[in-house]
Amino acid sequence: MVDVTRIEELKKRGELVVEAPLEVLREAAKITLGVSVKEIREDNKIIFTYDSPVCPPRIILTEIEPGKYHVISSNKCSIPDCPYWESCARSDTERLRIFEIVIKKLLGEKKILESRYEWLPERVREEELEKLIDRMIRRPKPEEL
């Protein structure tokens, strides 16, 4: 039997369509997930995963056409019949919203072609987050030190 509540919650995770060079999306994933992000390619998908032993957070890009990507965020659940899926779905939405803000900071508003959320995360204080993202973008990269 399919859990309708879970399906509805999964729909709430949100999605983006962005037009951007892969290098910029890679940098945005590092800012969103952390510098130890791993990149994996599967078919027409590029999956950025934070290295975590349990339920690693991911940003998943599906190439629509060259330079244009459909973006979602989803944890890779490692717990069978996990009772925490709802909080993970909320975290995924928060993570996607952060990724969207980072893209806007790096490239501008016009590069986000579509942004769909059934609800926006309550914990993301956008003004504070934008200040933090500005500082992270301006900091020198390890290879520049």
Written description of the protein model:
With 145 residues, this protein is α+β, with helices and mostly antiparallel strands. It has one domain: TATA-Binding Protein, CATH 3.30.310. It is 39% helix and 25% strand. The protein is built from 4 helices and 6 strands. The protein has a 6-stranded antiparallel sheet. Helix 2 crosses helix 3 and helix 3 packs across helix 4. The longest helix is centred in the middle third of the chain and has 23 residues. The termini are far apart.
Write the layout of secondary structure elements.
Blueprint lengths: L3 H8 L3 E5 L2 H12 L3 E6 L2 E6 L7 E8 L2 E6 L11 H23 L4 E5 L9 H13 L7
Helix pairs in contact: 2-3, 3-4
Terminal Cα span: 55 Å
Biggest β-sheet, characterized? 6 strands, antiparallel
Number of helices: 4
Number of domain units: 1
On the 0-100 scale, what is the average pLDDT? 83
- What structural category arises from helix and sheet content? alpha+beta
- Regions with pLDDT < 50 over 5+ consecutive residues? none
Sheet with most strands: strand arrangement: 2-3-4-5-1-6
* Outline: globular
What CATH architecture label applies?
Answer: 2-Layer Sandwich
% residues in beta strands: 15-25%
Rg over C-alpha atoms, rounded to the nearest angstrom: 15 Å
Strand elements, count: 6
- Along the chain, the helix and strand elements come as HEHEEEEHEH
Helix content: 25-40%
Q: Per CATH, what is the topology? A: TATA-Binding Protein
CATH class term: Alpha Beta
